[in-house]
């Protein structure tokens, strides 16, 4: 596995400072907006309220003592007393207990992407992480069934990597703007335009697209894989921002042909706001560490101290906390900041919250439904895509 990518600042390069990034301090001092910039709201001002599941207790028989104990566990694990108070935790506790019971009864492993809400991440997930880590967990899963709390392309990837096991997707309608941004026919056209050039697809693609590509990558290994591919050209689909980052990193080594897809969440961040945050925090005599996801505009990445997948951002933030560099702004979907709050409590987290409408479709109730009615939630991959998509994913593990 590759290490996270250091941003231009950490590499000592002085690029143009144009980034954006929303943010807000978790527990830090007030941060002032700079004249002429958009108002900087703190995280507590921009975070959405905790999801409140509708009462769904039919068939559940949990005692008050069991519910109280589970609520207390959730309260401490989520570690956001303002948004996830004890009353809210008490509301979701029976669902977590019931899901836990069904998981054990049906020998199901629950994988959850970092962008899932804290009730899922700390209430019912067995494994939490980025696309790369969770793909490996899915491939190696020994349980009889996999439930993937995330979006369709991730559940499809799990099915391709572990085809003998049922893979459940709690919200079959949970898509992704990147995966929707390219078709199999688009890839075939690119192949025609660039004959003999390897085609690398981001994991955020359908099985049908993977089946006609040569190698898959994730945000944890796209640079490493592109470098390791033979030849001096590569076609990269579908993310134009990650492709642009790749083109800069491989300048003089490889020509990168890019498609025009984008993540609707990361496309919302811009350079100017991140710069404003850094300057505002500097006015308080502190240094803001900016961590950005590679699905962001390269202008955002120019401002970053570190660029990497959601899990790499977590690892980097842990190191920052250990070194006492606690003012941190993660520029990615707000689930990662939720994880930082729970798992790295010494940080002061800045940034406004941008939610992925697809990732956030899934709630605890959907997970319960999927466990109770698995047939309706099982992910299928067309027979004709299975072999090609598997080859494409196997190549990822080979080149990473
Ligand atoms: P990673 O967790 O792999 O960085 O992916 C981010 C993402 O946007 C997934 O949809
Ligand atoms: Fe797709 Fe972006 Fe949502 Fe990830 S955050 S699932 S890339 S839309």
In short:
This protein is an alpha/beta fold and 400 residues long.
Q: Could you spell the SSE succession in H and E letters?
A: EHHHEHEHEHEHEHEHEHEHEHEHEHEHH
CATH superfamily of the largest domain: NadA-like
What's the total helix number?
16
Q: Which overall shape is indicated by the principal axes computed on the Cα atoms? A: flat
Structural class: alpha/beta
Into which percentage range does the β-strand content fall? Answer: 5-15%
CATH architecture of the largest domain: 3-Layer(aba) Sandwich
Q: Which CATH top level class of the largest domain fits?
A: Alpha Beta
Q: Kindly state the number of beta strands.
A: 13
Q: What is the CATH third-level topology name of the largest domain?
A: Rossmann fold
Overall description:
By secondary structure, the chain is of the alpha/beta class. It has three domains: 5-42 and 266-356, Rossmann fold; 49-177 and 360-377, Rossmann fold, CATH 3.40.50; 179-260 and 381-399, 3-Layer(aba) Sandwich (Rossmann fold), CATH 3.40.50. The chain has helices at 43-46, 64-78, 86-106, 118-123, 131-140, 152-161, 184-193, 207-210, 222-228, 240-249, 271-283, 298-303, 310-322, 335-343, 364-372, 383-399, and strands at 5-6, 108-113, 127-129, 145-149, 167-168, 199-202, 215-217, 233-237, 255-258, 289-292, 306-307, 327-331, 348-349. Strands 1-11-10-12-13 form a five-stranded mixed β-sheet, with helices on both faces. The chain has a four-stranded parallel β-sheet with strand order 3-2-4-5. Strand 4, helix 6 and strand 5 form a beta-alpha-beta unit. Bound molecules: 1,3-dihydroxyacetonephosphate (13P) and iron/sulfur cluster.
């Amino acid at each position: 596995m590759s290490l996270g990518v250091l941003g231009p600042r950490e590499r000592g390069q002085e690029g143009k400072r144009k980034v954006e990034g929303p943010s807000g301090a978790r527990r830090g001092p007030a941060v002032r907006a700079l004249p002429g910039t958009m108002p900087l709201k703190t995280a507590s001002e921009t975070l959405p309220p905790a999801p409140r599941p509708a009462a769904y207790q039919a068939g559940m028989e949990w005692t008050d003592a069991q519910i109280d104990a589970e609520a207390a566990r959730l309260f401490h694990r989520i570690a956001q007393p303002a948004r996830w108070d004890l009353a809210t935790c008490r509301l979701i506790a029976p669902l977590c207990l019931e899901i836990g019971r069904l998981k054990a009864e049906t020998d199901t492993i629950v994988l959850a992407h970092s962008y899932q809400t804290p009730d899922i991440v700390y209430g019912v997930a067995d494994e939490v992480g980025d696309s790369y880590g969770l793909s490996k967990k899915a491939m190696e899963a020994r349980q009889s069934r996999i439930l993937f709390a995330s979006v369709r392309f991730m559940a499809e990837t799990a099915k391709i990597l572990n085809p003998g096991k049922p893979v459940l997707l709690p919200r079959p309608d949970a898509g992704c703007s990147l995966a929707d941004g390219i078709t199999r026919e688009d890839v075939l056209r690119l192949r025609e335009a660039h004959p003999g050039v390897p085609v690398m697809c981001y994991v955020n693609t359908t099985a049908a697209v993977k089946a006609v590509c040569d190698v898959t990558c994730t945000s944890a290994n796209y640079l490493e894989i592109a470098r390791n591919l033979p030849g001096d050209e590569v076609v990269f689909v579908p993310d134009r921002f990650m492709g642009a980052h790749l083109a800069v990193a491989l300048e003089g080594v490889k020509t990168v042909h890019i498609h025009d897809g984008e993540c609707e969440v990361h496309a919302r961040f811009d350079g100017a706001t991140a710069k404003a945050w850094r300057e505002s925090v500097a006015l308080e005599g502190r240094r803001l560490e900016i961590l950005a996801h590679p699905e962001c505009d390269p202008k955002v990445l120019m401002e970053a101290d570190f660029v990497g997948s959601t899990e790499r951002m977590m690892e980097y933030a842990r190191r920052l906390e250990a070194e006492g560099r606690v003012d941190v702004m993660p520029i990615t979907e707000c689930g990662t900041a939720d994880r930082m709050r729970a798992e790295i409590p010494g940080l002061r987290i800045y940034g406004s919250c941008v939610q992925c409408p697809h990732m956030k479709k899934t709630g605890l109730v959907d997970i319960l439904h999927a466990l109770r009615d698995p047939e309706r939630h099982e992910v299928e991959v067309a027979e004709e895509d299975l072999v090609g998509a598997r080859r494409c994913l196997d190549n990822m593990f080979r080149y990473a």
